Amino acid sequence: MDMQLKELHPIVPIIHVTAIRRELKQTIAIYKCPCYTTTGRGPTYVFEAGLQMESEEQDVRKWILAGCALVLAPE
Length: 75
Hints:
single chain, mainly beta, 8% helix, globular
């Protein structure tokens, strides 16, 4: 969902993480969100999280162009 106005670092809700087999992996409406340890980004890259969009009609390019990323350590 889109950010609220004047909220620069919103808290991400609890994410349910599961392991699946590669042949069962869904590729439609998945945003590959980069995760960093700090807001400095660059060398603090940790992994890429596959976040499922709310619907299949949503375009993941919106979040790519917005520079959306997860930060593990708030500053």
